[in-house]
Amino acid sequence: MSSKKMVNSVEGCADDALAGLVASNPDLQLLQGHRVALRSDLDTLKGRVALLSGGGSGHEPAHAGFIGKGMLTGVIAGSVFASPPVGSILAAIRAVAQAGTVGTLLIVKNYTGDRLNFGLAMEQAKAEGISVEMVIVEDDSAFTVLKKAGRRGLCGTVLIHKVAGALAEEGMGLEEITKRVP
């Protein structure tokens, strides 16, 4: 253990953080073989839209801290400052679809790796017949030069989680939720 950080290892800190969060919160479960945390009551979401988000680790409990009723259904964590892998994102999409949800909205921050990996997973899920849409959050006002990647998604992302979560909780459909957030 480093004297500067409270982690066992950089390589395992994302796994340790998710395992600790799930161990301390009975409303969460891990998807085995992936850095995916999901609501433990997925069976209550039949007929509703699921919301998935995520991104690089290193700021825990960010992303997983936003899972719950009226918020996210689950999150996919990457390594420290790295986007989640396509396979884990696809596994999360499949897991919520198998629970009987009517569609999945991916809430993605405007980082190149996140856009690519969540986008690829979405296309693979659609090819399997799963209803999935994606919204990109780009609220960062610190970037004023928009010629390259554009604004990142930062603190405003949690507001999108909350608005989309409330709409999903009310039973609104995937297409309508997608139109109403960003």
TrEMBL record:
Pfam families noted in UniProt: Dak1
Gene3D superfamilies assigned: Dihydroxyacetone kinase, domain 1
Where is the secretion signal located?
none
**DhaK domain location:** 9-182
What reaction is this protein's catalytic activity? dihydroxyacetone + ATP = dihydroxyacetone phosphate + ADP + H(+); D-glyceraldehyde + ATP = D-glyceraldehyde 3-phosphate + ADP + H(+)
A GO BP term, please? glycerol metabolic process
- Please name the GO terms that the record assigns under molecular function: glycerone kinase activity; triokinase activity
Domain of life (superkingdom): Eukaryota
- What name is this protein filed under? Triokinase, FMN cyclase
Q: Which organism is it from?
A: Mus musculus
